[in-house]
């Protein structure tokens, strides 16, 4: 028996439609499409009317081009592989004035999206004056130059409601977009909103071409007040009871005294999944489902876990780690880890992966 990563593809499609509504979506497909599989995700998104994608990996961007010859592909990390970008018609971020000054001749005929740093401070131009300097210099060059196609930023605080930072970063960004518009600069693609901002604002900002959605497309709510029915999880992660052991009060189970039985005749199910398969230790602080009943995890090992059960559980029973009841986003809100953290941790080299129509 082997633990199983299983996706209901019809429910996945339904969730795309529910999230997309009538808005233009740039689908984030980084990290193997959040472990859902890049080829599967691109094919499905295209069939559901999404033809604009972003990733952080050049190798993934090349794979996307092979899968979708006419798609718009945006690389969110800077790259110096200029010939590869040109050959594959990959749009790339322009992260700073210094990058432009150093590489403006290397960037000839490459589509760039000018990145604004904002409050995240991860990458991007720090102020509008540097952006204007680049745009003015670019305008003065009449030939052999990059193609300024986009303007973008990332909101680092859109899922934070107890602080003012999202309002600050949103105001700074929208003011910058407005000022550049007033200056007469036009951009084919303007994108900033992640899943949290998209749902928080109930749609797309004015003057923006796309919302850049990631986690919501994969079935997780960006914050708890989004109704459960709005976003549907199509993923199930399940394992198997290998055997049921009986231990007694004071006996230790798992590595380094991980669990000590509190009662005589304690029943522990040995389950064939562990942290080597991508189960976070924080996830192991919560229950699993066996035969539609919740049972607590007592110890987590590399390839196994102990679950305390009762007489209704037997060898061969399925153990549900994640499904539409035990949702990934629910555990995010309980502090287990970000939605993307839980998804990307899953080890698809050790789990069986199954797409189910």
UniProtKB/TrEMBL annotation:
Keyword Isomerase in record: yes
InterPro entries associated with the record: Ala_racemase, Ala_racemase/Decarboxylase_C, Ala_racemase_C, Ala_racemase_N, PLP-binding_barrel
Requisite cofactors: pyridoxal 5'-phosphate
Pfam family, one: Ala_racemase_C
Keyword Cell membrane: no
Alphabetical keyword list: Isomerase, Pyridoxal phosphate
Residue intervals of the Alanine racemase C-terminal domain: 234-356
Protein name: Alanine racemase
Origin species: Staphylococcus agnetis
